[in-house]
Amino acid sequence: MVRAKPLQSSDKPLRSRARKPRDPAQPNLPLDPMPARIEPCLALLKQKPPVGPEWAYEVKWDGYRLAVHIEPKGVRILTRGGHDWTHRFPLIEAAAKALPVSTAILDGEAVVLDDQGRSDFNMLQRSLGGRGGKETSRDAIFMAFDLLYFDGHDFTKTELSTRRHLLETLVPADGHGAIRLSEEASADGAALFQAACEHGLEGIIAKRLDSTYRSGRLGDWLKIKCVQSDSFMIVGYEHSMSARGGIGSLLLAARRGDELVYVGSVGTGFTERVANDLRSTIDRIKRKTPSISYSGRRKNLVWVQPTLIAEIEYRAWTADGKLRHASYKGLREEQDNAAIYRIG
To answer: What are the domain boundaries of the chain?
Structure first.
């Protein structure tokens, strides 16, 4: 089968571009220029959901943030960092082409669902061949939660309630295809958050209904997590002859200013296949000295270059600044623009 080439062959990230001014000779031109890319609106972490009729609530999906650009010349699927991953999600691309619209930009999350309908980041990453893998995912679906551009009109300055109404006319709530609607919940925030945690979900997202689409982490969207999950740098591992892949635990670091600071280790969350793949990747970036200040008593430590970013689930922090009850979820892609956890 001949595979179509992606519209953009370079994997360099796109940058947001200033919108072109309207032609003064055509002051009543009804169409807005379609942006090449829109920097995503990001959710601010909070401990409790907000209360009030001005807030809407959704499930928090655990996957890769994507923007799906639909144009007459084809479809582009961009990561949060602006990289073109159209070729990696062929089912989502085909579903986007089938939507009844000529131009649109959908904001959402690529996920793989487990047998209970919960998004699983590890399953998504495996479907793509692991970190740095080049495989196309035949399991990923796109959960659409916002509509930024529609039929020639830019809706980023329009309030969320209107954008959601238009999105629901484009993506049906009862869909079972590769593009589905991330539904709003009618329950109040506290009840939805409790239900999400009881069902083993990652958490919920709260959004102000009257908010426009503003790029960055400005508080229009909030995330409330059942279990904390953040990105940390892998700086080494403890070698063990009895552990899967020979990895007893991974040594992790966070940022404090311009430095990396040791924040503990993680020794759970690996399957045998994941551990073996991780070991083969880590052993290619060994170094003789640690990239952090380390005064622990562990033996058989192998230090590595601080280039791999791991998503770690954990329950709390110890008094001396270490992760408690940590579990490995997977490696973050560079193109996903993952931010290392910052202390202070």
So the answer is: 44-225, 228-336
